[in-house]
Amino acid sequence: MTATISPDQIERIVWNQHHDPFEVLGPHLLETEEGKKVWVVRAYQPNAEAVWVVLPEQRQEYPMQATHHPHFFECTVDIPELANYQLRIKEGEHDRVIYDPYAFRSPWLTDFDIHLFAEGNHHRIYEKLGAHPTELNGVKGVYFAVWAPNARNVSILGDFNYWDGRKHQMSKRVNGVWELFIPGIGAGEHYKYEVKNWEGHIYEKSDPYGFYQEPRPKTASIVADLSAYTWSDDDWMEIRRHTDPLTQPISVYECHLGSWLHASSSEPAKRPDGTEEPVVIVSELKPGARFLTYRELAEKLIPYVKELGYTHIELLPIAEHPFDGSWGYQVTGYYAPTSRFGSPQDFMYFVDQCHQNGIGVLVDWVPGHFPKDGHGLAFFDGTHLYEHADPRIGEHKEWGTLVFNYGRNEVRNFLVANALFWFDKYHIDGIRVDAVASMIYRDYLRKDGEWIANQYGGREHIEAADFLRQTNHVIFSYFPGVLSIAEESTDWPMVSWPTYVGGLGFNLKWNMGWMHDMLDYFHMDPWFRQFHQNNITFSMMYHHSENFMLALSHDEIVHGKSAMIGKMPGDEWQKFANVRALFTYMFCHPGKKTMFMSMELGQWNEWNVWGDLEWHLLQYTPHQQTKYFFSQLNRLYRSEPALYTWDFGGGQGGFEWIDCSDNRHSVVSFIRWAKNHEDFAIVVCNFTPQPHSHYRVGVPFKGFYTEIFNSDARDFGGSNMGNLGGKWTDDWAYQNRPYSLDICLPPLGVLVFKMDQVKTKTALESAEEGLSDEE
After folding, report:
1. Residue 298 in contact with residue 635, Cβ under 8 Å?
2. Exposed/middle/buried for 672, CB within 10 Å: 0-12, 13-18, 19+?
3. Which positions are annotated as active-site residues?
4. What CA–CA distance (Å, rounded) separates 468 from 496?
5. Helix (H) or strand (E) holding 485
6. Pick from 21, 332, 44, 43: which is nearest to 178 by CA?
7. CA geometry: angle at 469 spanning 466 and 472, to 5°?
8. Closest Cα to residue 663, out of 545, 537, 750?
9. 688, 526 Cβ separation under 8 angstroms
10. Which residues contact 216 (CB under 8 A, 6 or more apart)?
């Protein structure tokens, strides 16, 4: 019976070079020379002095013999059925009893799973690869699986085996998936994969599909059970499923959790059971400062955003990343919410609480590149597995990062499933895909000779575009009502058009042109604005080519660009007035809205990833008034269907210029229509400090127009010039309208009027009755 195993096989086990340890280790049913069938059990236990096979039900032990190698043990067990046996291992003065991992052939990953993965269509591959607490043959443990097709062998390292790669060698399936069930361990175990290439080089890797990682600078993955959280947002999810988000108000508060607010390490964070959380020190900020946990952020950030009236919170990347200074945009753990702020269940709690408070959650997603950190995806199995081998297509030299090989099915599957994962497991409401232009152009930030053309000789990255189409198609197939937003800065056509008409399939695209035009315009001294009226009006020339989101993001207030209020000309009063005028115009302009944290405070300094927002500014009246202004602006936006129900559509849709040609006064006026075309708002903008009395604006209907918003209001810190609550129309046709308003237009102010249907109807009926009496 011992002749059935060769010395070569034993050597390959001992030297950790076997592609399928189950061929050698574990139980094997063999036939003796007499024709009798018996079980032979083999085990390789480095450092063991003696090993026994233990049968708990029979209360029997069988001593194993080290006949081939001092730590390679073997024995015969003469019973009909051998199941769930244990190994008693003597190491020095200590004995330990374990279930033999090689007695469990897991059915977790099926051939059909592998087939779908190989063709790039296993949408929930994260439920198969990675680490999954489970039960097999009545024994609890963790099933591990990792894709490393070019590795000579792969092992699992962890606290449970003293980080010794010889103890848990994995078995290779077709398509290069390695797997092993380790009994007797569960959630909370730290682990890595030891990947050895054919030259014998060893790479210790975090799990690409790992759900949880150690806080940086440590890099081990942690086994997590994502089913351990009970959600309470069923109503939110059901409503979302039946809602078209493009007809809803979307006002996004973009937030970096690590620099919104810190806490003192002298105030330990608490777990739900009342025990203390380990403290993460942020030494770059100041000694003794720590991050808020997800649960603390739920207590502080959610009420703050709700008070200000935003509909969504957008989180800068919260997938695990090693370097704080990357802002989260250099991801190593695509399936793990960063442990800086707590556990996966803590992040679930944060999202759940957002939903229960009527706030959606968007997450920045970074499928365009990944860092070169040794524990990450780079050179994962000793070859260029996730990235291209040729740096002319596989590397972003300016960023020091690598580019995914979108043409490889398994890599594309990893990313498509990852996007779906955040919706599925964390109930997020949308993703904002970072740096789309860097993905869809092969020559992005590359000089001539440093990039490779596609098969047609063009600069378009066809595989990346196909990947984005597949991602969006899959997301919307599973989760209608969510958002997929592209940060795309070029003129690539149909970014936010459906995939079935050839678009990339996003349902929103950041309007980078509008952002640049507006910041250039507002940076000018108001006197010069009369020569640049086109900056204000040009966006409506192309607005209906895409579903645009107007975004003033984190990128606009870093790297010497100045904080938003610092960009504005004039004295302090004019700076605040310019900010109010800019954002009021933004919220009245067609398109959904995004603005970065700190802008609502009127913060003077740029965003600092190592610090907090400048909360102390709220002790000063102008900053208090600015914060109040944003709360009222959001209130206006959410309460007026004309400002959000018809942002997109053919022709001019819900937007119509009244007058965009008054460049001499730097004034524009327009109408925003609701879908029913009965509800509408009149918006008049004055972008100079010069007020205008008796400024006439044409309107479509006769009646009383209430001034529902004035960015120059006293409560906002303005001069309080206005129209005493509203104006009656004059029977004076103007600007191609049958009626007009004679209004007072405040300095650096934006006014919003709405026709008071009740007051108008009453007045007109009274007037008709008066005429009847006279007759």
Report:
1. no
2. buried
3. 434, 487
4. 11
5. strand 483-486
6. 21
7. 150
8. 537
9. yes
10. 321, 322, 323, 324, 340
- What number is the average pLDDT over the span 478-503? 96
Does this model's pTM top 0.70? My answer is yes
Q: Read off the tokens for 347.
A: 């992040």
Which pLDDT score, from 0 to 100, does residue 766 have?
79
Q: Yes or no: say if 441 and 460 are a contact pair by the CB < 8 Å rule.
A: yes
Token pair recorded at residue 544 = 């209906």
Amino acid at 36: K
Angle at 490 between CA 484 and CA 491, to 5 degrees: 95
Cis-peptide, bond into residue 590, ω within 30° of zero: no
For residue 652, what pLDDT band results from cuts at 50, 70 and 90?
Answer: low
Q: Which two tokens stand for residue 75?
A: 């024995």
Alpha helices per DSSP H over 495-650: 512-523, 533-537, 539-542, 572-588, 621-639
**Residue-level length of the chain:** 775
Angle at 142 between CA 140 and CA 146, to 5 degrees: 160
Give the pairing of strands 360-365 and 395-396. Answer: unpaired
SS3 string, 546-582, reads: CCEEEEECHHHHCCCCCCCHHHCCCCHHHHHHHHHHH
**Among residues 653, 654, 682, which one has the least CA distance to residue 669?**
682
Please check whether residue 364 is in contact with residue 428, taking contact to mean a CB–CB distance below 8 angstroms. Answer: no
Pairwise CA distance, residues 145 & 157, whole Å = 13
Give the pLDDT confidence of 592-616 residue by residue, as tens digits: 999 999 999 999 999 999 999 999 9
Q: Quote the CA–CA distance of 318 and 340 in Å, as a whole number.
A: 9
3-state secondary structure of 95: strand
pLDDT at res. 772: 58
697: phi then psi, degrees, rounded to nearest 5: -130, 130
Dist CA 532 CA 650 (whole Å): 27
The amino acid at 171: S
Buried-exposed string 388-398: b where 16+ CB fall within 10 A, e elsewhere: beeeebbbbee
User: 55 by DSSP, 3-state: which?
Assistant: strand
How far CA 10 is from CA of 16, 45, 77, 175, in Å, comes to 10, 12, 20, 25
Longest dimension (CA), the chain: 126
Residue 173 burial (C-beta neighbours within 10 Å; 0-12, 13-18, 19+): middle
Straight-line distance from the first to the last Cα atom of the chain, in angstroms, rounded to the nearest whole number: 121
Percent helix, strand and coil across the chain, each to the nearest 5: 30, 25, 40
Residue that the structure tokens 């029979």 belong to: 58
